[in-house]
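**User:** I keep going back and forth on a fold encoding question. It is easy to fool oneself when nobody else works the same problem. Could you pick a protein and write out its sequence and tokenised fold? Could you put it straight underneath, so I can go through it closely?

**Assistant:**
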Amino acid sequence: MPKSQERCQEIREETRSKILHNSMLYFAKNGFAGTKISDLAKHIGIGQGTLYIYFKSKEELFHEIFALANTRKEIESLKLLLRLPLSAKKKIRKLSGRIMTRFTEEDSFAAKVALNVQMMLEQKDFASAETTYQSELYQLTKRLIQQGQKEGSVVDGLPMKLADYYWGVVYLYALKKLFTTTYEMISEEDLSRVLLKDE
């Protein structure tokens, strides 16, 4: 019995989803330049021709993956968190909790983190030390750190460098999750301690 039109559409959507998900992990591990379509197709478990049915080029596929992986969700969440009438200490703990929850509940979160850092570093605008910290995510984290320093709950230091250190720890654990099978993930409390003073 032939497949219904609806079932054919479901299969197309499932295949496209599979390509995007597996490609995100592959690009995060290998980078754009280190990814060959033939190797990617083999990794996904489909023919190279099948991949080209869904995406015309490696660039088109990467562009769509990057759109899925962009930091808008984190930025909007951080903006909302900054507006809450809470101490910076509580906000930092909430932020750290969200990040660690996403690491455990979203299997693609580590790939998203890695891809965003790769893209940030590859952009022409981020080529020098003066422009590295223009990311909105870093700017918002800096504001949170400044609030905490005024309240006395965040460690001393340049707020932007502390923001870089915080997100650097997140990136490190994203890489560990992507590249290793045995590692000990830090806790929400461990991540918060990157910024918070000892009590």
